[in-house]
């Protein structure tokens, strides 16, 4: 084989090339090339024709058999409980323990909230002009009055 370089011919055997530049090794080969002997999996036909008739002449004799992975997704036969498991659904069916200690007759008016009664409801909260709702503890009330521990103690 000869290459045309300008006006003269050079034989490829006469050209001194480094073997490392002539042949390159693929450091990360594609495993699909080993299995399919092709560069792209989509090029491979996953079916085989049955029969020897020409395409388009007799559509009744044109049959194929699919091979390999099916195109449809295989769904698991196990039904997955998406939001509730059977165990938690069983817990929802069990009667709960009443929270309130007093039983009140049901009223005909709809309530805007469900009152939760507990042991703390026995004592009504102390309301003052500093604590009108009775939600502050004793140290917060003292701090609002300007009393309480000095800065060095805290």
Automatic annotation (TrEMBL):
One GO biological process term: negative regulation of RNA catabolic process
Hydrolase among the record's keywords?
no
Source taxon at top rank: Eukaryota
**Principal localization?**
nucleus
Keyword list, A-Z: Nucleus
Where in the cell does this protein reside? Nucleus
Question: A cellular component term (GO) from this record?
Answer: catalytic step 2 spliceosome
Give the family from UniProt: Belongs to the NRDE2 family.
This one is known as Uncharacterized protein
Q: Which organism is it from?
A: Mustela putorius furo (European domestic ferret)
């Amino acid at each position: 084989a000869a290459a045309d370089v300008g006006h003269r011919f050079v034989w490829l055997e006469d050209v001194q090339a480094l073997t490392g530049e002539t042949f390159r090794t693929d450091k990360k080969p594609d495993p699909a090339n080993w299995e399919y002997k092709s560069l792209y999996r989509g090029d491979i036909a996953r079916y085989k024709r049955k029969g020897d008739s020409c395409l388009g002449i007799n559509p009744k004799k044109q049959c194929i058999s699919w091979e390999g992975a099916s195109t449809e997704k295989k769904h698991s036969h196990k039904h997955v409980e998406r939001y509730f498991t059977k165990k938690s659904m069983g817990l929802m069916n069990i009667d709960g323990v009443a929270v309130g200690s007093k039983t009140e007759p049901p009223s005909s008016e709809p309530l805007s909230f469900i009152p939760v009664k507990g042991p703390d409801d026995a004592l009504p909260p102390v309301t003052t002009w500093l604590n009108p709702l009775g939600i502050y503890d004793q140290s917060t009330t003292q701090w609002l009055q300007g009393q309480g521990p000095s800065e060095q103690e805290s």
